[in-house]
Recover the amino acids of this structure.
């Protein structure tokens, strides 16, 4: 099975891919999210693993747009606790470090830690694990990476500060994506969809009331501007339910309140 991930081995996407599918998978490494959908549509991979939101930083809006643009189907999800670690080539301590490279999100989530070490310059980079690999390959000194403990293990780096993220209860939600012809899970307890409301006052409130009437919980809603239609918005929503028939009944009633409705996926709720 071929799984495309953002980043390289040792990245958080790598951890999710193995936790979700098992270790007997072939990873296709991508440095950007935007290159991933074409691999799936061209049949070069079986699934994509893509981060979609973080409990601290919120939704990763460009990834919602990619899923919509390429008509990808969500077939599963995985919540990973994110623990950032400062790592270097062995034999150094934090006083020796002049620069630390990592993904912008990781730097943001660890900024409070580095306030106590003003001598260190923070530099944005493409991927957490790729920085760890580069430090190891080039035998760099005075340079650190923020990455997972798995990256330190793979690239033989020494962790000099563990769990340096500001907020310790830090989770990222990843979605597993397939081609849109996927039909949905008959035992689904969660659905992700996009809808555009009719131009009528109070319509969003009516939609929310219909969901509540059918015991469908709106666990997330995110608005994004509609390209070429100024001041109009599409809503991306996650719905959680126990009875799939009640969910389907709710969708049937909602269709009269919206001008368009698109289901990205129906799958098992994996939030613990």
């Amino acid at each position: 099975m071929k799984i495309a991930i953002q980043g390289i081995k040792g990245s958080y996407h790598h951890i999710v891919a193995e936790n979700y599918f098992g270790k007997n998978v072939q990873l296709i490494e991508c440095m950007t999210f935007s290159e991933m959908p074409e691999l799936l549509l061209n049949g070069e991979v079986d699934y994509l693993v893509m981060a979609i939101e973080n409990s601290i930083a919120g939704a990763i809006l460009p990834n919602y747009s990619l899923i919509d643009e390429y008509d990808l189907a969500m077939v599963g999800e995985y919540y990973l606790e994110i623990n950032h670690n400062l790592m270097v080539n062995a034999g150094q301590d934090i006083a020796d470090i002049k620069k630390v490279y990592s993904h912008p999100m990781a730097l943001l989530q660890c900024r409070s830690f580095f306030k106590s070490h003003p001598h260190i310059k923070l530099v944005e980079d493409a991927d957490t694990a790729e920085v760890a690999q580069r430090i190891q390959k080039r035998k760099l000194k005075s340079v650190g990476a923020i990455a997972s403990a798995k990256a330190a293990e793979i690239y033989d780096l020494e962790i000099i500060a563990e769990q340096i993220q500001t907020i310790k209860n830090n989770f990222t939600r990843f979605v597993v994506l397939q081609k849109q012809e996927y039909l949905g899970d008959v035992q689904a307890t969660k659905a992700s969809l996009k809808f555009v409301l009719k131009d009528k006052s109070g319509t969003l409130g009516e939609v929310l009331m219909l969901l509540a009437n059918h015991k469908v919980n709106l666990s997330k809603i995110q608005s994004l501007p509609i390209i070429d239609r100024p001041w109009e918005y599409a809503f991306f929503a996650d719905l959680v339910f126990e009875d799939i028939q009640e969910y389907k009944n709710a969708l049937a009633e909602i269709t009269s309140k919206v001008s368009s409705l698109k289901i990205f996926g129906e799958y098992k709720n994996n939030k613990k």
Summary: The chain has three domains: 2-81+170-179, 85-161, 190-267.
